Amino acid sequence: MSIEFVNNLLKQREKIRLEFKEARNSIPRNLFETVCAFLNREGGSILLGVNNQGEVIGVDPAAVEQISTDISSLSNNPTKLNPPFILFPSVVEINGKYIIHIQVPSSSLVHKCDNIVFDRSSDGDFRVSSLQGIAEIYNRKRVHFTEGTIYPHIQSSDFKDGLLEKVRNLIRSNKPNHPWLGLSDDGLFRTSGLYKIDYQSGSEGFTLAAVLLFGKDIVIKNILPHYKVDALVKIKDVDRYDDRLTLETNLIETYNELMDFAARHLPDKFHLEGDTRISLRERIFREIIANLIVHREYTNAHSATFTIFKDRVEMLNANNPNGSGPISISNFRPFPKNPIISKFFVQIGRVEELGSGIINVNKYLKYYSPGSKPEFIEDSVFKTIIPIKLTVSVSDVISATDVVTVEINDSLNEAISEALNDGINEGIIEGINEGIKNRIVKTVAEIKENEGIKAKVLADRIGVSIQTIERDISLIKSLALVEYKGSKKLGGYYLTDNLKGKLAQ
After folding, report:
1. Dihedral through CA 71, CA 77, CA 80, CA 83, nearest 10?
2. Tens digits of residue pLDDT in 34-51
3. What's the farthest any 2 CA atoms get from each other in the chain?
4. pLDDT at 406 over 50
5. Angle between helices 280-294 and 434-449 (to 10 degrees)
6. Mind listing the domains of the chain with CATH numbers?
7. How far is it, in rounded angstroms, from Cα 38 to Cα 18?
8. Considering only CA atoms, which of 153, 66, 81 is closest in space to residue 115?
9. According to the model, what pLDDT value does residue 397 have?
10. What does pTM read for this prediction?
11. Which own/partner contact pairs does 193-201 have at CB distance under 8 Å and 24+ positions apart?
């Protein structure tokens, strides 16, 4: 989470969605009581290293890493938090002192800490011991979070073949030591909240979230006949469309298809962040496409739309609103409409963290479309508007830290995306995150424009170390996209005939 966001929290007092805790050398004794209460109520932020008055005390620098690791481990331990809800804290340095920020969403499940149910009020955490009180929490969540609806007759055979293994590869690429990787398939579904038991009704089974993430197309359609996402381009023909993509598949592949659609029809621009060149299109649209998917109310028949106009990209999706009207950084408070799905997208690296979308779009849009501001409007249908320029030139560069590189056309992007997907499906490579994918696209584009180029020159042009470019080239070579020709001293990298053939089609 950004320093700006944490600083804004520090200006506030403790309340129903904000808790301060001192934590100099270890996890506070009652931390997971608060985590449990947040999960069962509205979610919120916990800041470790801050006293009750909002004064930054700081966490011992030598203890920061261990405390963060312990929080992740315990949040995934059903003896501490049941059902588990894995958390990955972020560390922020303010005035030379370290704060650990824990963003806890509201959950569609009812959680216990040390076998006790906790809830939250403006006065803090409190135990819920009566059956009536627990039943009220269940009823509240059942009404608000439809993703947790149990379908007892859904079986693992109703899930798309091979998709779970792809997900494991994505998790491995995002977090190689992720605790989910050591779990069986059944254990992963249960731990992630995709399979649950309703202790009030006695029913158990896979949830709507599991069906949406992994279900075969026909299974999703049988449960949600209205389910689809429409992607449209309306630049020349605004009354109909120039291009259209209708998606009725699982959310994981829907995300990939929408990202590819955006790559085909929207320009890219590159920005230097530290020592790394990043794709602004990827940074902006991965967030809003993920938001379109993870925050949709799927029981509503209103279809989701992703429309590219000449001057903007506009997205609409059915919503279970948490307030109404425009959302800005100043009045924004993260609230997932589908906490299980949202958490899953974080774990596979499709979303950075809860609430990152609005923050990152505001951060990067000023470089992608100078002078523009995004619009986020909360209502029964959530509306997102991203102003754009459909041409990107050197004159658009904001400062010396912004970089425009070689053109990456649609056919090249599509060919590389296809090769990466085939490589993952065939087990040649493991899943990769969007950042690595974009770096690979840029590397191949550089080789295309400068055949015979050497690794050292590539590293300098891409803005990475020689070790990184050599790892990337090794992966690219395994996909038969590039090859080395000539002697070790005089040779360089070229596109393969295989890739040239695809580009010529």
Report:
1. 110
2. 999 999 988 889 999 999
3. 78
4. no
5. 150
6. 1-116+129-143 (3.30.950.30), 229-403 (3.30.565.60), 410-504 (1.10.10.10)
7. 9
8. 81
9. 32
10. 0.60
11. 193/83, 193/85, 193/107, 193/108, 193/109, 193/148, 193/340, 193/343, 194/340, 194/344, 196/83, 196/109, 196/148, 196/150, 198/138, 198/150, 199/110, 200/134, 200/135, 200/138
Q: What is the per-residue pLDDT for 230?
A: 93
What is the number of alpha carbons within 13 Å of residue 209 lying toward its C-beta?
Answer: 26
Among candidates 234, 247, 330, which has minimal Cα distance to 289?
A: 247
Tell me, what's the pLDDT at 401?
A: 33
3-state secondary structure of 300: coil
The answer to whether 147 touches 208, Cβ cutoff 8 Å, is yes
Q: Is the pLDDT of residue 409 over 50?
A: yes
The helix, strand and coil proportions of the chain, stated in percent and rounded to the nearest 5, come to: 40, 20, 40
259: burial class by Cβ within 10 Å (0-12, 13-18, 19+)? buried
Which residue's structure tokens are 């909360």? 378
Sequence-ordered list of residues with C-beta below 8 angstroms from that of 24, at least 6 positions apart, any chain: 49, 57, 58, 59, 60, 63
Whether 408 contacts 415, CB under 8 Å: no
Ranked by mean pLDDT, the top range of 201-205, 208-212, 261-265 is 208-212
pLDDT on residue 105: 80
Strand partners, 494: 483
Q: Looking at residues 131-147, what average pLDDT do you find?
A: 79
Q: Are 338 and 145 in contact (CB under 8 A)?
A: yes
Q: What is the mean pLDDT of the chain?
A: 84
Q: What single-letter amino acid sits at 240?
A: R
On the 0-12 / 13-18 / 19+ scale of CB atoms within 10 A, 198 is: middle
Tell how strand 229-234 and strand 304-309 pair up: parallel
Pair of tokens at residue 160:
């798309």
As a three-state string, the secondary structure of 417-484 is HHHHHHHHHCCCCCCCCHHHHHHHHHHHHHHHHCCCECHHHHHHHHCCCHHHHHHHHHHHHHCCCEEE
229 touches 258 (CB < 8 A) = yes
Tell me what pLDDT residue 332 has. Answer: 57
